[in-house]
Amino acid sequence: MDHPFYEVAATAKDAMDRGGKVYQKYTCSGCGERLMMDEPNVFYKTGRCDKCGTVTNIEEQGCNYMLVFDAEAIAEAKERGDG
Predict the structure, then answer these.
(1) 47 has which bridge partners?
(2) Can you name the residues that pair with 67 across neighbouring β-strands?
């Protein structure tokens, strides 16, 4: 499910600040395929579908993200008191 771009980016930044890796996800406006960007911790305003080639305006359509914390990031967050 996609949510407003800037709200998602702000929430993701908080997770990144705590040591998480964030992978942007969005839905292709052409074929409806659910896509994920390869580059962690970057939010793109457009994306090209691997399946149909449509360029989606992610800034207008919205997006979401997948959050990954590894064991080291979790331990560091606990040491800082924010995990």
Answers:
(1) 56
(2) 22
The answer to whether 76 touches 19, Cβ cutoff 8 Å, is yes
Which two tokens mark 75? 């331990």
| 79: its two tokens | 């040491």
Q: Are 7 and 1 in contact, with CB atoms under 8 Å apart?
A: no
Please give the sequence-ordered ranges of beta strands (E in DSSP) within the chain, or none if there are none. Answer: 21-27, 34-36, 46-48, 55-57, 64-68
Among left, alpha and beta (phi > 0; psi -120 to 50; other), residue 36 is beta
pLDDT digits (tens, 9 = 90+) for 40-81: 999 999 999 999 999 999 999 999 999 998 877 677 767 877
Q: State how far the Cα of 30 lies from the Cα of 48, in Å rounded to an integer.
A: 10
3-state secondary structure of 47: strand
